[in-house]
């Protein structure tokens, strides 16, 4: 079982760098759908991901249709959107086989509306007060979702406790 975070046309290198760090720390694959709003060689991107960028399994896609065609089971594609009716914690992500994909939209405009209309049953929402903010930060949203998935998978392959030499919890 593999989890995937997918970013549609990300614009901000700091967000993508933070998400890459989360992916590295959770053994989650990262997919970037072009065009990107930055160069992966950009100094801000390097600053955001310098220590672990090479430890992230990244796949680049030329466009949204190319990415969709690469998903083996569309029922395991979840579209993160504030317009969804279903909370992100509602689906069962614990199935022992298959990959789960979590698609997040561009920071400024989200995902194209015609695309969203094609997959209404795949959409999940992180509850928020829409009267006070337009949207949650992209990297925070990715972290919230992937950690719920990992919780349901009993944090598969992740070390739960670190033992430090001077730690009383040995």
Automatic annotation (TrEMBL):
Keywords: Cytoplasm, Methyltransferase, S-adenosyl-L-methionine, Transferase, tRNA processing. One of its GO terms (cellular component) is cytoplasm. Its EC number is 2.1.1.207. S-adenosyl-L-methionine binds at residues 80, 105, 126. The keyword Hydrolase does not apply. GO terms for biological process: wobble position ribose methylation. It catalyses: 5-carboxymethylaminomethyluridine(34) in tRNA(Leu) + S-adenosyl-L-methionine = 5-carboxymethylaminomethyl-2'-O-methyluridine(34) in tRNA(Leu) + S-adenosyl-L-homocysteine + H(+); cytidine(34) in tRNA + S-adenosyl-L-methionine = 2'-O-methylcytidine(34) in tRNA + S-adenosyl-L-homocysteine + H(+). Its main location: cytoplasm. InterPro entries: Alpha/beta_knot_MTases, SpoU_MeTrfase, TrmL, tRNA_m1G_MTases_N. Residues 4-147 form the tRNA/rRNA methyltransferase SpoU type domain. Could methylate the ribose at the nucleotide 34 wobble position in tRNA. This is Putative tRNA (cytidine(34)-2'-O)-methyltransferase. It comes from Paucilactobacillus wasatchensis.
């Amino acid at each position: 079982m593999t989890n995937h975070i997918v970013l549609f046309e990300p614009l901000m290198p700091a967000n993508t760098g933070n998400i890459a760090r989360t992916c590295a720390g959770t053994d989650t694959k990262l997919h970037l759908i072009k065009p990107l709003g930055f160069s992966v060689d950009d100094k801000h991107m390097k600053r955001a991901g310098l220590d672990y960028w090479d430890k992230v399994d990244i796949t680049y896609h030329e466009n949204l249709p190319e990415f969709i065609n690469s998903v083996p089971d569309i029922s395991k594609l979840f579209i993160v959107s504030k317009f969804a009716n279903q909370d992100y914690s509602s689906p069962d992500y614990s199935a022992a086989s298959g990959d789960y994909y979590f698609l997040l939209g561009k920071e400024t405009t989200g995902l194209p509306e015609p695309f969203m209309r094609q997959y209404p049953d795949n959409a999940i929402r992180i509850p928020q007060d829409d009267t006070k903010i337009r949207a949650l930060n992209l990297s925070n949203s990715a972290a919230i979702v992937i950690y719920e998935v990992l919780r349901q998978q009993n944090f598969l392959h992740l070390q739960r406790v670190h033992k430090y030499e001077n730690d009383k919890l040995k």
